[in-house]
Amino acid sequence: MESQNIEYKQSWRDDFLKEICGFANAQGGTLYIGMDDKGDVCGVEDAKRLMEDLPNKVRDILGIIVDVQLLEKDGEKYIEIATPPYSNPINYKGKYYYRSGSTNQELKGIALTRFLMSTSGIHWDSAIVVGETIDCLSQDAFKRFRKMAQKSGRVDEEVLSDTNEVLLENLNLVDPQNQLQRAALLLFHPNPERFVNGAYVKIGMFGDGDDDLVFQDEVHGPLMLQVDRVMDLLKTKYLYYAISYNGNHREETLLYPEGALRECVLNAIVHKDYTSAIPIQISVYADHIVVWNSGELPQEWTVEKLYEKHSSQAFNPSLANAFFRTGDIEAWGRGYRRIARLMKEAKLLPPKLEKDNGLMVTFYADIKQQLKEQMGLTERQTIIVDWIKDNPKTSYAKMSQKLAISTSTLKRELSLLQEKEYILHDGKTSSGEWIVPMFIIN
Known about the structure:
The chain is of the alpha+beta class. The protein has four domains: 6-122, 2-Layer Sandwich (Methyltransferase, Cobalt-precorrin-4 Transmethylase, Domain 2); 126-194, no CATH class; 201-368, Heat Shock Protein 90, CATH 3.30.565; 376-439, Orthogonal Bundle (Arc Repressor Mutant, subunit A), CATH 1.10.10. 36% of the residues lie in helices and 21% in strands. The chain contains 15 helices and 19 strands. The protein has helices at residues 17-25, 47-62, 109-119, 139-152, 157-160, 164-170, 182-188, 223-238, 258-271, 317-325, 335-345, 367-375, 379-390, 396-403, 407-419, and strands spanning 6-9, 29-33, 67-73, 76-83, 91-92, 95-100, 103-106, 128-129, 180-181, 201-206, 213-219, 241-246, 249-254, 280-284, 288-293, 352-355, 359-364, 424-426, 433-435. Helix 9 (258-271) runs antiparallel to helix 11. The longest helix has 16 residues, at 47-62. It is flat, with a radius of gyration of 27 Å. The two termini are 29 Å apart.
């Protein structure tokens, strides 16, 4: 089966050099000639001629060396072309291709610029902006950085007590001539939108639907200050609180863990694709919140990988480094795992992650709604999963009694839920424990 590193072709055409180019620019891969889409050998004509021509064509047109071998299975010959990954960008007739998943994509525009910069060891946020000086930066942003970095202990005290110039040098945000990187202007300039369109956060409160916008706000200014400003605005104007009483004392609790929302806002600010003029958007509804940004996951990553143990691959490394030094974020790719843990502690499901011309994260305050929308459960199945979540050692009899569902119907529904792996059972039928996998954080 075709994948990130494997491609099958029944016969050779010279424009398949694009596939080899894509492998070279990504993780490397193998192109098989004489195999159908399922990977079954169908044989290749002129194998001897191709074995002589292909290495030379790849070398002369792409400028790289590949390993070409003639193989045989059940009397049918086929060719294997193994391409290693190259650290320098490879082009086919002036065009750049990149293997992503099981497809070969031509890189254009901003994607091409980012690719060429990254292969040269340069990132978009580290590019120099000529003509701006350190004097134009916000003292309030520097003050916040120093305060948080001192608290985190991730910057030497001598650096924190020195000048802004020294601080920026230690953060690698200036060149030897003290010219500022884009990241320096985004983090510390009072109006970063002078240099980067869309470098702000838009918040909206919605009523019955997406067309029912009740009110909205925008948060501008240095990214170093946007985080706190967004959270303050959400807590004081947008978020709902659960009301409870401890004796005569009234207590108000956010419907969502503040730490989880803050982590999500930070991720959006740090990993946004700032080449897009569309701002970060936070949409608040009565029972859920949606945080969207135009960032992208690393190539070959899925949204599920964010919840697994993984290395940190920052979309904007210079921005990420600054927020790591302040202690706002971790450097080891644990942000979404932390969000999931905080949601679990609040007895809520992890947020729903989706790729939607960017990355969209949806927090639900109502577990039953999320179970129905995210997992496609019926009302009865939702009730069963919700009960199991709070009563993992429940028995068939007790569940049937409490939920007012007949034993036969209950067993049928539990069987369906187990087939879909929405619930698991550990141990003996009579004395084991039910598990809702969404709550297991490795």
